[in-house]
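Minutes, structural biology subgroup

Action item carried over from last meeting: produce the structure token record for Medium/long-chain acyl-CoA thioesterase YigI (Acidovorax ebreus). EB confirmed the sequence was re-checked against the source entry. Recorded below for completeness.
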Amino acid sequence: MSKPASLPVAFEPEFIAGLRQIFEEKIPFNHLLGLKITRLEPAAVAARIDMRPDLVGHFAYNRLHGGVISAGLDAMGGLAVMAAIGAKHMDEVPMDRLHRFAKLGTIDLRIDYLRPGIGSHFELRAEVLRLGSRVATTRMEFLGPQGELMSAGAAAYIVS
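Output recorded by EB:
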């Protein structure tokens, strides 16, 4: 993914821990999948899903269902928006910035499935293309174990 101009921001440990807890533990679907943040920066985020024996039983033929891929990419787009909003409002304490995410919602989502979701693990990436006062636009990628692009997405989120 190409990167937009980086925001010169270093997130506080409290903000990172709070955002990780919201994303990995408080969103039941993310928790079920074992979606784990691997990169959290103002301009881009990444996470990983490891296939587990208990997940394989839920998905036909040891592959991730398109709905799981779509939901994962949607979650990543939302995480990218959260990071961008967090960077934009560094004048606020971390807890106040984390409360801003309660109003975040998907208003448009498009996923292009390029290859079947087969693999031992997957990397999901997202970046914000534009953060407006009411709407944010993102681009997301779903990558296989060798880094091959398996699905790509674009989404818009309400941020007011």
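Discussion: Strands lie at 36-40, 44-50, 63-64, 105-113, 117-118, 121-131, 135-143, 149-158.
Next step: EB to file the record with the rest of the batch.
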